[in-house]
Design goal:
The complex is a heterodimer of chains A (181) and B (580).
Chain A (H helix, E strand, L loop, with lengths): L1 E8 L2 H15 L7 E6 L5 E7 L14 E4 L2 E3 L3 H13 L4 E4 L9 E3 H7 L4 E4 L11 E3 L7 E3 L2 E9 L3 E4 L14
Parallel strand pairs in A: 8-11
Antiparallel strand pairs in A: 1-3, 1-4, 2-3, 2-6, 4-5, 7-9, 10-11, 11-12
Chain B lengths: L26 H6 L10 H12 L15 H11 L19 E9 L11 H10 L4 E7 L2 H21 L4 E9 L5 E6 L5 H12 L11 H19 L6 E5 L10 H10 L4 E7 L39 E2 L2 E2 H4 L4 H7 L5 E4 L11 E2 L6 H4 L6 E2 L16 E7 L4 H10 L2 E5 L3 E10 L10 E4 L3 E11 L12 E10 L16 E10 L3 E11 L3 E8 L33 E4 L2 E5 L2
Parallel strand pairs in B: 1-2, 2-3, 5-6, 6-9, 15-22
Antiparallel strand pairs in B: 1-12, 3-4, 4-5, 7-8, 10-11, 12-13, 13-21, 14-16, 16-19, 17-18, 17-20, 20-21, 20-22
Helix pairs in contact in B: 4-5, 5-6, 6-7, 7-8
The chains are: A alpha+beta (181), B alpha+beta (580).
Amino acid sequence: MIIGIDAGSRTVAEAEHLLHMVAEALGTPPGLIGCTHFVRTGVPHVACSLAVPEPVDPSLLPTGVSAAVGESRTGPDGEGAARAAAEHASGEGGRVVLFPGRAELVGSLTVAELLARSALDQVLVLAQPEPPSAAAVVVTNDHVRPVWREGLMTLLTMPMAGGRLTPAEVPNPTPCCADHA
Amino acid sequence: MSHGHPHPHPHPHDHSHDDGAAPGQGEMAAVVDMSVADKDLSPAELSRRQMFRRAGLLGAGVTAAGVLGASGRAAADTADTADTAGLTRSTPGEPRDGYLWLAGDHHIHTQHSSDGMYRVIDHVQHANAYGLGWMVITDHGSVAHAKIGVEKVNPDILAAREAVKDTLVFQGLEWNIPAAEHGTVFVAPGRNEVATLKEFENSFDGSVKNATASTPQNEALAIAGLNFLADAVKKRRVPDVLFLANHPARKGLDTPHEIRAWRDAQPGIAIGMEGAPGHQAAGIPKPNGPGSGRGLYDNSPSADSWSGYPPESYKTFGGFDWMTATVGGLWDSLLAEGKAWWITANSDSHTVYGDASDRGPGSDFDANGRYNDPIYKGVPNLANSDFWPGYYSRTHVGAAGFSYGAVMEGLRQGRVWVDHGGLISGLVVRARTSDKRGVTLGDTLHVRQGAQVEVAVEITLANRPNWAQFVPTLARVDLIQGDVTGPVSDKDAFTTPSTKVTQSFEVGKNTGTVTFTFKLGAVDRPVYVRLRGTDGNRSAPGLLGAAVDPHGPQIDVFGDADPWKDLWFYTNPIWILPRR
């Protein structure tokens, strides 16, 4: 099941931090899929979603965090949390922060290695209709944030120096949550 | 460069713009050499000469031979005062090449920006040396700027106007558009230029008002800001004011419906956007450059971004913003509606690539509203992302004269083309029926139903080295054409189906002048055309497919985009309307 979480984060960095905090508070096992979602309930902000293997106890959530599980809503922005969960479930939107194999995606890897080591379903290149070759090298910057596209966990990349690829999302110069990964 | 004789000097006219610019004959030599008739100068040279004339630097006796006859200028002035709101302008006769084409830049930061460092005069001296006829000082809207900087910068601007008479220096600011991106707002000089800008900033700046979030309320505040500016002109507080959206696609903040709303609220003030952002050195590879995204386009969607934009929109293509670079994309969707919405290209100069100066030490920006004057440090900074105004990005405006008002009016009318890296020196475009002189950029040609229409193009090639010391070669010019289909029901539309590259002309030269004509055939429905040219170094099928744009600009390579090796020019459109 997918739990939606919303603490009104204004940036994806804040939302990622929240996601890690929540995963820790709930004592979830490693390898879950957790995402950030842009929601517009009130001021535009970033909510999160976390796919959990069994029902969780919302009372374990940090204070001030709204949640949505199924039809239940808790906290002041349960609606934002619900939208995040729904988007995750649809596979049509959301940016994936936690996913199986994430820790293995560091340094420079070929497309084949990215797909083999993690839950990634596909790698695409901006402004290029065909996918890259399996041997194409992706410089990950240790920052891999796939997005959902038609149900597929998709890493969007762009061309970079040396004929290589790099994720289209450039890491924040001051990385958030480096100590949580 | 062994051309040893001094200038000015008499010489035969056969050296003029079509002989490939003999070595040593700088533009200035011909410009001030009164034995060279106006008609033998390139458009850029003629602009320079006219500038000097109007500044009183050249004798009046030489004007008789000029192509700018008195009657012609009067006619042009008449055209300038016509309705500005789209397709309703009349098009009285206008002499070919009847304008001063003044290169300029409306996006420049000084020590009065928290991320800037240079004095006003630093920028003005460089801009002047690099050939700009006009420039706008646009420090960031902020609490410190609204309180202190907007006033402190003014005496520096006034002094620069005195010190450098042949470059027009406007005061403006970079508006944090509520709910959206940044934009240039600038006014014509006058008694109330500071007071008006200050009140505007205090009342409508997104940062000052804590109104940056993409909410309907903040979108409304942006419109209120534009209405305030219109009111300031109406009440004659300022003679004129313009607004242009800066780096519009950078963060996905300027939605299509906001752009339409700005333009529709005040079509005489909200006139366009940066077709190409500044920060063009940002993609120069490490270790010799910043190694980032060209234009500093290295962002990803945020909570305030519009979810309808594709991930490609956050990147640049041949140095241009996605909205402009995509044939059949957002810009074209506005033009296909018949909306006058123009593009520009600017430096966004904050800190200059390779410059060896440094921000003034011991500064207290918040207290003083400015940094102390820069110091010479002696260490070239290769992490800086910008060029001096005029060094790389130029917005060429066809002005009826060398004046603040004429430049603003030329911008408002869309008599504007832009280039990077000095790809070409001059450009005359006329849409016409065979027996008429026709109209130029930004204008509308009214023809009878089914009339044969052509677009005549005269390009003065680079001819001289650019500021990177090479003479760029123009490989190809594309004609982009689309149907004008009127207002769209979806205010967030960002494509238009019929616009595509319809014709191309191979040039492959960098000296002399090339003249060619695109035949549009019988025009039986409203259309618009615009031109795009390239050095041909990097191209790829456009984002909407090879059938739309077979050889468009390529997505810029992150961390490896040498701006001098990928040069483009773009013109603003001409509409052609057959009578019913």
